[in-house]
Amino acid sequence: MPVPSAPNRTLLLIEDDPDAVFLFRHAFAKVPETEAWELAHVQDGQEAMKFILERSPDAIVTDLIGIKISGSQLISWIRGHQLLRNVPVFVFSNSERLVDRQACKEAGADEYINKKAMPDELRKTIGRLISLANMVRLDKEAREARAALNG
Among 25, 47, 116, 150, which one is most buried in terms of CB atoms within 10 A? Predict the structure, then answer.
């Protein structure tokens, strides 16, 4: 019997609401594309910044309303770092206000997921996030390979 391989990709979830974490974990586990992925979780923006610098996740999902740092502030921080600026970032929030969605887009979020989304919709959105992260990784690997050949 083959031994399952360890996850080689990480999605970081930044969320302080245990019910939202449970909902996201459940949806994440049901998406076939996540088999090679680890779902890491921290509760606030400061923990997230430390995790991101130490582990460099492949994709990030953040709550909009942060305890110490707002989601849009965190996204701006991520987009301000050369090595992180292409990491897909989705916002996971209860807010239905257009101004909140616009602030996240302006900060650099790739997509906005409403926490009230139906489970199928949430799974599809997670699938899109994984696909986007896979494309970013392939692009990065191709650039590195070209640089090595030209180097």
Answer: 47
